[in-house]
Amino acid sequence: MLLDLDHVSKIYGDLHALDDLSLTVPAGQWLAVVGSSGSGKTTLMNIIGCMDTPSKGSVRLEGHPLEDLSSAQLADVRKDVVGLVFQKFYLIPHLTAVENVMVSQYYHSVVDERQALDALDRVGLADRAHHLPGQLSGGEQQRVCVARALINDPKLILADEPTGNLDEANEKIVLDIFRQLHEQGTTLIVVTHDALVASCAQREIMLNHGELSGELWNDEDAHQAYLAAGGRPAFSHDAAPGTQPSDLLTQDLPVGFANPTKAAKVGGQTTKGE
Ligand SMILES: Nc1ncnc2c1ncn2[C@@H]1O[C@H](COP(=O)(O)OP(=O)(O)OP(=O)(O)O)[C@@H](O)[C@H]1O
Ligand SMILES: [Mg+2]
Q1: Per-residue model confidence (pLDDT) at position 2
Q2: Distances from the Cα of 228 to the Cαs of 37, 215, 223, in angstroms?
Q3: 265 CA distance to ligand 2 centroid (A)?
Q4: If DSSP states are collapsed to H, E and C, what string results for 28-48?
Q5: Does residue 101 surpass a pLDDT of 80?
Q6: How confident is the model at residue 273 (pLDDT cuts 50, 70, 90)?
Q7: What is the atom index within ligand 1 of the atom nearest the CA of 210?
Q8: How many other CB atoms sit within 10 Å of the CB of residue 254?
Q9: Domain range for residue 21?
Q10: What is the DSSP string of 71-115?
């Protein structure tokens, strides 16, 4: 597995932003993470992206336990393995769009303006390359973030609401890029509130108050391959059947979502259309 979260929690005082979440993601999977505001999606992305550490549990990326790495080694993982599209953009305000993309190249390898301009062209921003973030719309800034995340060909793209500010045409541009990356074998983890964006992923997990509250497969072949490779359903708390909190049994899930408690009780996962 490229990514293995084992009983991961992030606790702030009384609040469990993530609550005992276990999740494995193989290389090449396209996973969507959905859930209401405050359900822990960004917290999860920050932990996977080595920007934050869990209060409990462990995270393995490419087989390496992240808790064993020094801050310098974590920074290396961040620049060598992961490409991040942040919910809040985090563009450097006094640098132009193309310079913001080149900063990512600078930390990774060699600065190449032509390549950075091509990445902006890919997200439809060739004509805005020399504008400052303050001169760009929210959707344009978001697409600069996508270009910045792609520029170093990361193995794992973590995208937090990457289409949240985009109109239909630009959402399509970003989804097409994700499709191409997926075909090339890139692993994608995409947080979204948009059902269409989520449905493009092979697998969806839903969070509720930091816990796994549902899992859905949109691609049955990928599901079977995942199980055959030893992949297991995501879960919170105990994986054993019948040990989930009983209130999950009555929880309303969107159409198609498997309730993990029910799934455990019937000994498997539900797939769309079953
Ligand atoms: N540094 C922090 N200190 C205290 N509480 C925090 C901190 N960061 C996040 N939280 C809390 O953790 C919970 C999960 O936050 P998170 O940002 O992961 O939610 P989210 O699912 O990404 O929400 P949204 O859809 O609004 O982006 C929220 O209740 C939030 O207030
Ligand atoms: Mg968030």
Answers
A1: 96
A2: 34, 18, 9
A3: 31
A4: CCEEEEEECCCCCHHHHHHHH
A5: yes
A6: very low
A7: 14
A8: 12
A9: 3-237
A10: HHHHHHHHHHTEEEE-TT----TTS-HHHHHHHHHHHHS---HHH
Backbone angles phi, psi at 82, to 5 degrees: -110, 140
Indicate whether 260 belongs to any domain: no
* Residue 92 CA: distances (Å) to CA of 45, 95, 101: 21, 6, 10
- At 173, which CATH number? 3.40.50.300
Average pLDDT estimate for 250-270: 57
Query: Residue 266: inside a domain, yes or no?
Result: no
Q: Residue 197 in contact with residue 190, Cβ under 8 Å?
A: yes
Q: How distant is the alpha carbon of residue 159 from its chain centre?
A: 5
- 38 phi-psi bin (left φ>0, alpha ψ -120 to 50, beta other): left
Q: What percent of the chain has pLDDT over 70?
A: 89
**What pTM did the predictor assign?**
0.91
Distance CA 251, CA 213 (A): 8
* 68 has a pLDDT exceeding 70: yes
- Mean of pLDDT values over 225-231: 95
Beta carbons within 10 angstroms of residue 238's beta carbon: 14
Do residues 123 and 136 touch, judged by C-beta distance below 8 A?
A: no
Closest of 107, 111, 97 to residue 76, by C-alpha: 107
Distance 113 CA to ligand 2 centre (A): 31
Q: How many domains does the chain have?
A: 1
CA of 87 to the centre of ligand 2 (A): 6
Rounded Cα distance between 46 and 86, Å, is 9
Closest residue to atom 31 of ligand 1, CA basis: 38
